[in-house]
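Bug #77: duplicate submission created two jobs. Keeping one. Sequence:
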Amino acid sequence: MYEFSDYFQKELRDQPYRAPGEELEDYLRLLDMILESYLEFRGLGTQKKLFSRGLVITETEMGSYFEMPPYYRERDICDPVLSEAAEEAFGYISGRAERTEEAGAGDLLRIAPLKKRFELDRTELFAVLLALSAGIDRRYERIFGFLQDDITKGTPTLGLLFSLVCRITKREGAEQAEPRPLDEKMYRYFLVPGEDTEALNTPLVLNPSMRRMLLGLPDRDGGEEGTFHVFREEEGIPLFFEESARELSRVLGGGRYACCYLESSDADTVQHVAYRAAAEQETELLLLDLKAHMDLSRARQQEALSALFLKLKLSGGIVLARFPEIDGENGAASEKDRSLVSKYWKLLERISAEAKPSVVLLYGEAREPGVLAVRAVPALRIPAPSVSLRMEIWNHFLTRREEVRIAENVVIPDLSDCYEISYGTIRHAAIQAIAEAELKEEPVVERADILEALRQLNQVSFSGLATYVKPVYTWEDITMADSQREVLKAACDRYRLRNRVGEAWGLKKRNAYGNGVSLLLYGPPGTGKTMAAQVVGNELGVPLYRVDISRIFSKYIGETEKNLSMIFDAASKADVILFFDEADALFAKRTEVSSSNDKYSNSETAFLLQKIEEYDGMSILATNHYNNFDSAFVRRITYAVHLDNPDEEARYLLWSTILPKEAELEENIDFRFFAKQFELSGSNIKSILYAAAYMAGAEGKVIGTEHIVRALQYEYKKLGRLVERSAFGPYAFYLNA
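Kept job's structure:
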């Protein structure tokens, strides 16, 4: 029952394989031939059986066992007839595989490429076939359980493998082939390693990635656990970081280093550069999630590694991994962190030694970890994109969809200058803005769509020390003198052009401090300082955060500086405007040192002044008491705008324009009279008009003079001013008694 002709068609010997999987089917026929022979050898179909079919060993079975001479007890020796049939089968399959390759159809083969690439001998080949058969056909489970004397052991073992190989292996001077451990490569690429890879009862379990490959199934990107995947960049994206890509290509092409460190906090930038460098080397880029891998159980880690090793062995690749960030004061890592880093390095060294790729490490911080110097790992810094490069990136991603139009209020040069952001942030913001535009009836990307996407991507946490303020006011909403407006617009222009002009004319190189802009708004209460801050935020399209000064100060030494550092450190990681309202509490004049409190108060003021100067963004400070400001700070501020109480003409403009157009007013309200009679600030006028609107709404009427008079009376009482009936002239009868 195990002759060659019973399993193979001799007339096909000189024919190539015509379909995928035919070669594998022939190998499984060979396995069936050997298994059937072994079943007969072990007593199948005879009255006398050499071993138990269950979990209980009887006395009769033990007696029959000792009836045999010692040499033959459970000895698996070569069967000459089977050996010759197997030799013929091996020649038959190899011959057809050669014909297939000669016909240019080598992609139809599954086993031949593996034998050649991994130099598999017959024992290793049969290990793969046994492990594969158990996973594709349930009948093999029962056969293996029978042969291994335990129906619960449906997985083939190392012992069974040796027994089958012995049956077809001729040895000079001895009929039995000595068992030997499988080569390490088998557990690296083909088999899932167990606790003991040398014991005869070690199960042979095929690596899932290898099983899918042998069966011609699409590979699961990253293996069963998905700890790595092949990175493929979208088509049509130009190379933005040419110099960095060239430097990395030189390192990868040199073959001198096993690892390379890329210094950049933006994962998208690193992937973009590494992908282009890998393409230059004509190989793939594999993204490895180190943390996800280390979180797996040991057995799962081995499976995931086997999948990665197999991928590297068969198709090569550059592995890109994010190196873990280490927490610790002043860079001093804890013992736990150092242990974790050591484990990461051991894993990376295993990977780099496997297929000898260059492992590119992505570290989240813009500094070179000391651990790299110990291992002589070269570090390449990918610089943040310049303002001109940011313009190229914005232009590419905002204009790649022909069916989506860009609104006129989207000024790409201004976006590029105001937002010093990474390639990845620009890319994601543009994609998000386009996605929002496509939901509209007419797909148009508006400025507001981009700004909202940027705000979501640049989420910043100030730990309660500052809160986001949504700017709702524009230049049309604020009333101020032309001279004040000019200074405010000059501050906006300087911030908007600080990179373009600064880089083109070399001004940034001569700046000893930061490249930011500071703006001081001062004047009496209610003159529109907060409104002006919102106008600036709206004009620049940069998120505005109001600093909670009450939470900054602390009675404990050093806590105030710590809070200030936290604010500026968080702001430096995102493009935001810091708004310090009532800032005279922070920048009060420094006093003569007569006590320890004076000493520490002065140091806090100096520290804050230093932080303002170092900050590259915009800082807006508002105060009601300009004279209380420290003169040293005033000298260093970029712009100062004095907002005074409005004159009669300005008050008239405020009275007639503050209410929205939707508000219903009775005709001929004499706003000129109220502007002339009452010297009020803009915030007072707004408070009066809004109060009048709610009064009218409660009465079910339109807003009339009577509502304004009563609201004005309430406002005067709130301010502690005397209400003179004569000042209300012909409208005095509306006053409450």
